[in-house]
Recover the amino acids of this structure.
C-alpha cells in the first residue's frame, strides 16, 4: 500500500513536471493533470467530461433552446461529484447513467461565473444527463427578428460562446483547458438551416432535424450554433461559404482565396486538422469581426467590401485552426497564446497569398493599434503584460489588443532574431507536439528556451523574453517594420497638410490599407472646409468599406463635421460589431459630455446589438 502510494505520488510528480496539460487519457496510470480553471467551477482533476451528446430544440417563438446535454465522464478514484458551469439556465432534471436523480445541487451565483451545478456520481459513473432550458439571460445567444437579417424572410439565431458564455446556452465544463468531442441533434422550425462547429448540412432538411458530429476534442468556448435562412456555396476543395441567399454570391466572391489560404497555412504549420473550412456570414449585429468556431468560422458581413480588401480576417480565423483550436490557451490569462500567435500566423498567410508589401501594411496597422491601446490603457499598465491576471475578473476585461498586437510583435521580434527558417521549424514542432491539447505561458516559454534557443539563458535574457511576457509596455528590442506603400501615403499626406489642397495629392491605386493609414495619420484637428473637401473628393461618408467608414466617422465626430451625421446614425443602427461601435460612441461621448446624442442613437440601436456589445456600451453611456 505504502509502496503503491509512493509510486503513485512519484508518477504524479513526473506527470505534473513534464506533461502538465496533456489532456489525452484519463485513466489513473497516465493521469492527465489539467490546468486549474480560473473562470470555471469545474474540477477536472477530479471529474471531467470526454464527450457530449446534445439533443435540443430551438424555439423561435419563445426564444428558448431546450433539451438535454448528456456527457460521458471520467471520475477519479474516490471522487463523489462532478461540477458543471451554468449561468441563467433553467435546470429541469438530472440523470446519472440514465437514471433520474435528485442528488444534484445548484450553488450560489457569482458575477460572470454563474452557478455551479454539482451532481453526485461515483468513480464508476459513465454518464450524466442534464435537462435544461435557456432563459432571457442567455448572453451567448442573439435572437434576431426577420427584419434584422439581410433578406428579412426568416428569424435568425446565433451563439457566441467565447470567452465564458457557452454556459449560458448549455451546461458545460466551461474552461479552455477541458476538451471533449460532441454529437448533436438539433430541431429547428421547418425550412430553416441549422449549423454548428461540426460536420454541417449544406441543404435544408424539411424535417427540421439536423445531426452534427465533432470528432476532434474541443473546448466549450468553441461550441457554436446558428439557425437561419441560409444557403451554401463551395469555393474550393475544403472551403465554402454559408450566407443568406441575397448575400451568398458576394460572399463567395469576397472569399475566393480561402482554399489558397488553407493550402498555404497547412504547408507552413502542418496539416489542416478539421476536415472542412467554411465561413458563415452572419447578420450585421454579430458583435465580433470573426469567431474561429471549428470547421465553421462565424464572420461579420462588414468585411464584404466588394474588393476582397478585408479578408485578412478570414486568414486570422483560419489561423486559429492551429493556434487556439488545435493548441489552446490553458486559461484566459494565457489569451495571448491564442491571439498573438494567430495574428502572427494571419500575417504569414497574407504574405504568402498577397505578398510581403501587403502583409507589412497590416503589421504597421497592428503597431498603430498597439500604440493606441497602450495609450488608452495608461491607467491599467498591469493589463499590458502578455500574461494576464484575470482571477475574479470578467475575462472580457483582458481581451484587449495587447494580446493581439503585442503578442504579434513579440513573435515577429523572435522570428527576426533567430531567422525565419528556424522559427518556422520551432512553430511547426509546437503545433505538432501540443496537438489537441492546451498550453500555458510558462510551458511555452520553457519550450521556447529549450527548442528555439538551445537552452541558452544568455539568448533568453538578450531577447528580453521575460520582459515581453511579464512586464507592461513594449521592450526596446521590438522590430521596426517599414512599408514603401505607406511611405507613399505619408508623402501625400504631408503634401495635403502643406498645400491644403485635396487636388494636389496623388492617390491613384491606393488600397484600403493605404486609405486607413492616410486617415489614421491626419492631424487631430481638421477644419470643416478640409473635411468637406476630403469628403467630396474621396466620398468617405458614403464609402462601402466599413473599416474606412469607422475611422472617418470618428474623425467627423471629433471635428464636428455634421454632413456625416446621418450616415453615422445609420451605421450604428445597422452594425453591431463592437470594434466599430466602441470608438464611434466613444468619440460622441467625448464630443458631447451631456451624452444626449449618443444616448438618443443608442436607444434606437440597442435592440440590434448582442450582449457582448451592450455590456461595453451600457457602461460607456452609463445606462
Ligand atoms: N477569438 C476572437 C474573438 C473573441 C475574442 C471573442 C475574445 C470573444 C473573446 C477572434 O478570433 C478575433 O480575434 N476576432 C477579431 C478579428 C481579428 C481579425 C483581429 C475581431 O472580431 O475583431
Ligand atoms: Zn482571434
Amino acid at each position: 500500500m505504502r509502496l503503491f502510494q509512493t509510486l503513485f505520488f512519484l508518477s504524479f510528480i513526473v506527470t505534473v513536471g513534464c506533461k502538465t496539460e496533456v489532456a489525452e487519457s484519463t485513466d489513473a496510470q497516465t493521469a492527465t493533470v489539467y490546468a486549474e480553471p480560473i473562470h470555471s467551477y469545474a474540477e477536472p482533476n477530479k471529474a471531467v467530461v470526454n464527450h457530449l451528446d446534445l439533443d435540443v430544440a430551438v424555439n423561435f417563438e419563445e426564444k428558448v433552446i431546450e433539451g438535454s446535454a448528456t456527457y460521458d465522464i471520467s471520475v477519479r478514484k474516490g471522487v463523489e461529484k462532478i461540477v458543471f458551469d451554468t449561468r441563467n439556465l433553467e435546470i429541469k432534471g438530472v440523470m446519472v447513467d440514465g437514471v433520474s436523480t435528485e442528488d444534484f445541487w445548484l450553488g450560489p451565483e457569482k458575477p460572470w461565473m454563474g452557478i455551479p451545478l454539482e451532481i453526485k456520481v461515483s468513480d464508476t459513473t459513465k454518464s450524466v444527463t442534464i435537462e435544461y432550458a435557456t432563459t432571457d439571460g442567455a448572453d451567448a445567444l442573439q435572437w434576431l427578428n426577420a427584419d434584422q437579417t439581410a433578406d428579412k424572410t426568416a428569424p435568425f439565431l446565433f451563439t457566441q460562446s467565447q470567452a465564458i458564455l457557452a454556459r449560458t446556452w448549455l451546461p458545460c465544463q466551461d474552461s479552455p483547458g477541458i476538451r471533449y468531442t460532441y454529437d448533436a441533434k438539433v430541431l429547428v422550425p421547418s425550412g430553416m438551416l441549422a449549423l454548428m462547429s461540426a460536420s454541417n448540412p449544406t441543404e435544408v432538411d424539411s424535417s427540421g432535424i439536423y445531426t452534427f458530429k465533432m470528432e476532434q476534442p474541443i473546448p466549450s468556448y468553441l461550441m457554436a450554433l446558428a439557425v437561419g435562412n441560409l444557403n451554401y456555396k463551395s469555393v474550393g476543395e475544403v472551403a465554402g461559404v454559408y450566407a443568406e441567399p441575397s448575400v451568398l454570391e458576394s460572399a463567395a466572391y469576397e472569399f475566393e482565396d480561402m482554399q489558397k489560404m488553407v493550402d498555404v497555412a497547412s504547408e507552413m504549420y502542418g496539416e489542416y486538422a478539421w476536415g472542412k473550412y467554411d465561413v458563415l456570414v452572419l447578420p450585421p449585429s454579430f458583435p465580433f469581426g470573426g469567431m474561429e468556431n471549428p470547421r465553421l468560422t462565424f464572420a461579420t458581413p462588414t468585411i464584404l467590401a466588394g474588393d476582397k480588401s478585408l479578408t485578412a480576417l478570414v486568414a486570422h480565423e483560419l489561423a486559429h485552426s492551429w493556434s487556439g483550436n488545435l493548441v489552446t490557451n490553458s486559461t484566459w490569462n494565457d489569451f495571448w497564446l491564442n491571439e498573438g500567435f494567430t495574428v502572427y500566423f494571419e500575417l504569414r498567410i497574407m504574405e504568402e497569398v498577397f505578398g510581403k508589401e501587403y502583409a507589412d501594411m497590416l503589421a504597421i496597422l497592428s503597431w498603430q493599434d498597439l500604440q493606441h491601446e497602450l495609450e488608452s490603457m495608461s491607467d491599467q499598465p498591469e493589463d499590458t503584460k502578455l500574461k494576464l491576471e484575470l482571477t475574479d475578473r470578467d475575462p472580457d476585461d483582458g481581451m484587449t489588443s495587447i494580446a493581439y498586437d503585442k503578442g504579434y510583435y513579440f513573435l515577429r521580434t523572435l522570428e527576426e532574431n533567430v531567422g525565419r527558417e528556424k522559427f518556422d521549424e520551432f512553430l511547426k514542432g509546437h503545433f505538432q507536439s501540443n496537438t489537441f491539447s492546451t498550453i500555458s505561458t510558462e510551458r511555452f516559454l520553457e519550450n521556447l528556451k529549450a527548442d528555439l534557443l538551445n537552452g541558452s539563458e544568455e539568448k533568453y535574457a538578450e531577447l528580453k523574453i521575460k520582459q515581453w511576457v511579464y512586464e507592461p509596455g513594449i521592450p526596446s528590442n521590438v522590430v521596426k517594420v517599414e512599408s514603401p506603400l505607406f511611405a507613399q501615403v505619408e508623402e501625400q499626406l504631408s503634401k495635403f497638410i502643406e498645400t491644403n489642397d485635396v487636388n494636389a495629392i496623388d492617390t491613384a491605386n491606393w488600397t484600403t490599407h493605404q486609405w486607413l493609414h492616410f486617415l489614421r495619420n491626419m492631424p487631430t484637428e481638421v477644419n470643416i472646409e478640409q473635411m468637406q473637401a476630403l469628403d467630396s473628393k474621396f466620398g468617405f461618408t458614403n464609402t462601402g468599406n466599413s473599416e474606412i467608414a469607422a475611422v472617418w466617422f470618428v474623425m467627423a465626430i471629433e471635428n464636428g463635421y455634421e454632413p456625416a451625421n446621418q450616415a453615422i446614425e445609420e451605421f450604428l443602427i445597422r452594425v453591431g460589431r463592437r470594434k466599430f461601435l466602441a470608438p464611434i460612441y466613444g468619440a460622441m461621448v467625448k464630443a458631447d459630455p451631456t451624452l444626449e446624442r449618443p444616448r438618443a442613437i443608442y436607444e434606437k440601436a440597442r435592440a440590434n446589438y448582442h450582449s457582448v456589445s451592450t455590456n461595453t456600451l451600457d457602461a460607456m453611456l452609463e445606462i
